[in-house]
Automatic annotation (TrEMBL):
This is Nudix hydrolase domain-containing protein. PROSITE patterns: NUDIX (PS51462). Pfam families: Glyco_tran_WecG (PF03808), NUDIX (PF00293). The keyword Mitochondrion does not apply. The lineage of its organism: Bacteria, Candidatus Falkowiibacteriota. It comes from Candidatus Falkowbacteria bacterium RIFOXYA2_FULL_47_19. Residues 250-395 form the Nudix hydrolase domain. GO terms for molecular function: hexosyltransferase activity.
Length: 401
């Protein structure tokens, strides 16, 4: 099985026979697994939500649910086998019934299909299936755990919709050790209960199920559907074409954030350890997203460290530039799509307590303070040239105080 990178998300390229074997293995290997079903809208959402991006890329399978992903893969010479959430749900239900495995449906309270609807269709279509259904909110609470803990299903389906269902699975799966497989399926049960009619098979094969749904919806739901279609057929192709054919020739505007504090007449600088590369220490950094250096640096520190206990001191534009391809042995952020990065510097003084710092789990494995004169040797070797430049700017800024 290969993964195909589409806008930074690793999409699983797998045929259906291999897929069912893979799922069978998930249920028998003694470990926990989760499956996601990205479509163009989900991938676009991941570009706005770093935690969601991390969760999608750490799934055991990311099955393409959307004809837009097939078209994107074709431009890169791949033929993706589309697997819809609805088809996946049916096959797993069949497998669970035949193998006498318990399943639970954690059904969003505001779904089109109510608990009673799902119970009726499961009893009718899968009479030997051992199942439980809980109606839940997008804000998960402990009472639900008590019921699930008693039933102890091996498979759970979560219908909260993206990104809530994926975040729930990632954050809560370890708390349910009896679950072997978790799947975020959105509105897939609405097809089983006939709350939503699927398009005829020829239309699905041609990839026009989305158009069928537009004509079938009425009133407010048609408007909601049209907004989704706009994202999938206009915004997604634009973003993909830009990522695939334009960004590889450009450098991404980026800001490195030098957060310092004064302690016993010496300056100490904060470093973070990359989650995806143990032992790789660096200054916090991120894209400027069209903002000036100070605004972008303030946002990055707030988002990455989850603190606002700092005050800006200085900012500098375009201090350092590097290509991703030059960093041999280092797994670069190729999901960004750019040729490399051109980096500015934001300097800020930390005015809080250490317990005010809580780095995002999806970016960072740890953090520490280092003496300013140890900054260069404290960062990863690929960061040292830039660190020398930033330390010089920092020392000059401190001398002006």
């Amino acid at each position: 099985m290969d993964n195909i990178n589409i806008l930074g998300i690793g999409i699983s390229s797998i045929d259906k026979i291999s897929l069912w074997k893979k799922i069978g293995g998930f249920l028998s290997d003694g470990r926990q697994h989760y499956i996601v079903t990205p479509n163009p809208e989900i991938i676009l959402e991941s570009l706005r939500d770093e935690e969601f991006w991390h969760i999608l890329n750490h799934a055991d399978l990311a099955l393409p649910d959307g004809v837009g992903l097939k078209f994107a893969a074709w431009t890169m010479g791949f033929n993706l086998k589309r697997v819809t959430g609805a088809d996946l749900t049916v096959e797993i239900l069949k497998m669970a019934e035949s193998e006498n495995r318990k399943i639970a449906v954690l059904n969003w309270r505001k779904s089109l299909s109510r608990k009673e609807d799902i119970e009726t269709v499961l009893r009718k279509n899968y009479p030997k299936l051992n199942f439980a259904i809980e109606e839940v909110d997008r804000e998960w609470s402990m009472p639900y755990y008590q019921n699930i803990n008693v039933f102890q299903p091996e498979i759970i389906f979560v219908t909260l919709g993206a990104p809530w269902q994926e975040k729930f699975i990632y954050g809560n799966l370890p708390k349910m050790p009896y679950v072997k497989l978790a799947v975020g399926v959105g509105g897939s049960f609405d097809f089983l209960t006939q709350k939503i009619k699927r398009a005829p098979k020829p239309i699905r094969v041609l990839g026009f199920e989305w158009l069928w749904r537009v004509f079938k919806e009425t009133g407010g739901r048609r408007l909601w559907r049209l907004k989704r279609i706009y994202q999938a057929v206009i915004i997604f192709p634009y973003k993909f074409i830009k990522w695939r054919f334009i960004l590889p020739f450009l450098y991404r505007p980026n800001v490195a954030c030098l957060l310092f504090k004064k302690e016993n007449d010496r300056y100490r600088i904060l470093l973070t350890e990359r989650k995806d590369d143990p032992g790789h220490w660096q200054l916090p950094q991120g894209g400027t997203d069209g903002e000036n250096i100070e605004t972008a640096g303030t946002r990055e520190l707030s988002e990455e460290l989850n603190t606002n206990k700092f005050k800006p001191l200085a900012s500098f534009e375009n201090l350092y530039k590097y290509k991703f391809a030059d960093r041999t042995g280092y797994r670069t952020n190729q999901h960004i799509g750019y040729r490399g990065q051109k980096q500015g510097l934001f300097i800020a003084e930390f005015i809080g307590k250490d317990e005010d710092i809580d780095p995002n789990y999806w970016d960072h494995a740890g953090w520490k303070w280092v003496d300013s004169d140890k900054l260069v040797e404290g960062v990863h070797e690929v960061r040292r040239t830039a660190a020398k430049i930033y330390l010089e700017k920092f020392n000059k800024a401190m001398n002006k105080q």
